[in-house]
Amino acid sequence: MATSQRDVRNRISAVKNIQKITRAMEMVAAARLRRAEQRIEVLRPYADAIRRMTRQAAEAAGDLPRLPILAEHEQVSRVGLLVVAGDRGLAGAFNSNAVRAGIAAAREHGAESREAVFFASGRRGASSLAFRGYEPVERFTGFTERPAYADARRIAERLMAAYVDDEVDQVEIFYNGYISPLSQEMRRETLLPLQKATLLDEDDESEDDAKQDSSQPRALVEYEPDPEEILKRLVPDYVEISIYRALLESSASELGARMTAMRNASDNASTLIEDYTLQMNRARQAEITQEIMEVVAGAEGLG
Fold it and tell me: What is the pLDDT of residue 63?
């Protein structure tokens, strides 16, 4: 019995130590999450404006000019899939959701006789893809918790080069969109070609434009230089800012998922401690009862 109590006491001590770690990780994630939320709040209006300007310039240009980055490939035979995950684990289903979405898209393209080429952001995403037999052609790691614009530019340059050099005919991105610390949604967007880009299908009008009566005349926009030249400058910025936004959204989602996972782990540790404590008390009570019975038996034997 003594050994059993000692084992249970050691288990309780181990669980308490783990609980201290999970609570500390939860607090760190919560502190970093607030900063990540602020970065997203600052970026979203600018990103929406870039997307809206690109869409409007594309509409004004009509047939997009035959620049390499703007030219739509005649046939889509290879699709580049950028999976945005994290460098670390302990974040619930955050990493696996992004990987599963990318693999599902690859199978979808495969069913339509298109080859999928993976690009991975985050060590966990890259290793999970490789483990499942989808080795990424390029890995971008070491910045997922606090991405900088330079990281997004590096990824964008690689993807645009792959598109211009006919390495891929279409580029898609998969990432966890941030809604709240308890809620993230898996998003899939088409970046290139611009003709199929997600931004052309979205209604990026501001609230003021949405409230404006459709019968009222709208201001005419004159482009200087012409829309083609503006698109030539805007498209790289659009790709960079779209990837940067995805990195920030993914970073906040990872922190929110980690905070939630660590809180759940701490709660589970508390439950385990209660169960182990009850088990130890029962063992102690059984030992005391056994000792009393031995004393009574000895007294009766002497009598």
Answer: 65
Low-confidence ranges of the chain (pLDDT < 70): 1-3, 61-67, 199-224, 303
Distance CA 291, CA 228 (A): 93
Query: Which amino acid is it at 232?
Result: K
**Encoded tokens for 290:** 């056994």
- The predicted pLDDT at position 140 comes to 96
Phi and psi at 47, nearest 5°, equal -65, -40
Number of H helices, E strands in the chain: 6, 5
Decide if 235 contacts 227 (C-beta within 8 A). no
Written as one string, the DSSP assignment of 103-149 is HHHHHHHHHTT-EEEEEEESHHHHHHHHHTT---SEEE-S-TTS--H
pTM over 0.85? The answer is: no
Helix (H) or strand (E) run with residue 298 in it: helix 227-302
CA–CA distance, 4 with 12 (Å, rounded to integer) = 12
Task: Report the pLDDT value the prediction gives residue 214, as an integer from 0 to 100.
Answer: 47
CA distance 92 to 227: 45
Distance, CA of 166 to CA of 6 (rounded, Å): 66
For 29, residues 6+ apart whose C-beta sits below 8 A from its C-beta are 255, 256, 258, 259, 262
CA 194 – CA 227 distance, rounded (Å)? 14
Token representation of residue 294: 């031995």
Please give the Cα distance from 117 to 86 (Å, whole number): 19
Number of residues in the chain: 303
Q: What is the pLDDT of residues 101-145, one digit of tens each?
A: 999 999 999 999 999 999 999 999 999 999 999 999 999 999 988
Q: What is the pLDDT, as a whole number, of residue 198?
A: 74
Residue written as tokens 């459709």?
A: 214
For the chain, domains (ranges, CATH) are 2-24+260-302 (1.10.287.80), 28-200+224-259 (3.40.1380.10)
Task: Give the residue carrying structure tokens 């230089």.
Answer: 225
